[in-house]
Specification:
The chain is built from twelve helices and eight strands. By secondary structure, it is α+β, with helices and mostly antiparallel strands. It folds into two domains: about 170 residues, no CATH class; about 150 residues, Four Helix Bundle (Hemerythrin (Met), subunit A) (Up-down Bundle). It has a four-stranded mixed β-sheet. A hairpin with a 6-residue loop joins strand 1 and strand 2. The radius of gyration is 21 Å and the shape is globular. The N and C termini lie far apart (about 50 Å).
Length: about 325
């Protein structure tokens, strides 16, 4: 096995071991908690293991710095309880073709000991920015942060997103004595009712945003059109994730939402071609619109670009509707309704 820098969980702290320490990146905790979860990433190439290690180091360093400046006792005592890799790199079906715009993201769940510590702006923004700019990390990294109480409540409700993580995720780091709850099965009837409600509610929201963007394009209010197309896209991915997993992350980053959705349903990839630089540029224009179309005088977008983006958003709407109805039908049949 390749000799890489590794992290130990001695008393829950991150320890730097010698570079010749021939041990896996993710090491079992001293306790036997969460014993059903995988504890190593040996199925990944060494370069990806090294990148995950680097991500862990940045998260730990920046979180420690952030809580040291906290003004309340609960925040000053903030701890990372677990870091769990989920998604395609955990399952082993990732894609790594950056030249053609297809490269799976690292998806990480960070579990902390208090709800206050989940605020991205206060505790995680600097870490995310450092990871984005770090030359040693070649893959995009998505981070969701939740408290242990939040995660365990969701597991006890049997919410699919969390049950999937408990089943397929890989624990990269953890403090002992903070186990995940045993996932409880959700009835198909309950899941059917929830998913049906989400599809009905969010399909209307998607269409509302599309119609507003069409009006804005017609009136040549291009920035408003770009922003509302961003909202339509965000809502489409939220709709899919809620119908399929009963969860969506608190994020306006449509690239992150797209990654999570496409990881579950590859047919959604069709909405956003990546084959040419022009295709990729259009999605980036849309991603930037959430902030820049509202606040930046330098943001520019043409009628042609808006029309192309609108076509992709309409296609995404239709795909989400199709796969959403398929999912609801599966749940209906399982519930024998």
């Amino acid at each position: 096995m390749a000799k890489i820098l590794a992290l130990s969980r001695y008393e829950g702290s991150l320890l730097r071991l010698p570079a010749d320490a021939s041990i896996p990146l993710a090491i079992s905790a001293l306790s036997a908690e969460d014993s059903t979860m995988k504890m190593d990433v040996n199925h990944l190439p060494v370069v990806q293991q090294d990148e995950l290690l680097r991500v862990q180091q940045v998260l730990s360093t920046e979180f420690t710095e952030a809580v040291s400046k906290a003004t309340t006792p609960s925040r000053r005592k903030g701890k990372i309880l677990k870091i769990i890799l989920f998604g395609s790199y955990a399952r082993g079906d990732w894609v790594d073709d950056p030249k053609n715009g297809y490269q799976s993201d690292f998806d990480l769940l960070v579990i902390v000991n208090h709800d206050d510590l989940t605020d991205i702006a206060n505790y995680w923004y600097v870490a995310e920015d450092r990871i984005l700019r770090d030359g040693e990390i070649a893959r995009p990294v998505n981070i969701i942060v939740h408290s242990l109480d939040e995660v365990n409540r969701a597991l006890k409700r049997g919410e699919y997103f969390w049950v999937d993580i408990a089943r397929d995720g890989i624990v990269l780091y953890e403090l002992p004595l903070h186990p995940l709850a045993n996932p409880m099965p959700m009835t198909s009837a309950d899941a059917y009712e929830m998913a049906s409600g989400y599809l009905s509610e969010w399909s209307t929201k998607i269409q509302d945003a599309i119609e507003i963007s069409e009006f804005c394009i017609e009136r040549r209010k291009f920035k408003d059109a770009a922003f509302t197309l961003h909202q339509a896209t965000e809502r489409a991915y939220i709709c899919y994730l809620l119908v399929r997993t009963l969860y969506f992350p608190r994020s306006h980053n449509i690239k992150f939402l797209r990654s999570l959705a496409e990881d579950n349903e590859p047919r959604l990839i069709e909405a956003w071609p990546r084959d040419t630089r022009l295709d990729r540029r259009r999605f980036q224009l849309l991603k930037r619109a959430y902030v820049e179309a509202r606040y930046s005088t330098g943001y520019e977008i043409t009628t042609e670009e808006l029309e192309a983006i609108l076509a992709s958003v309409r296609r995404l709407r239709d795909l989400v509707e199709m796969v959403g109805r398929e999912r609801i039908e599966q749940l209906r049949e399982a519930a024998r309704l």
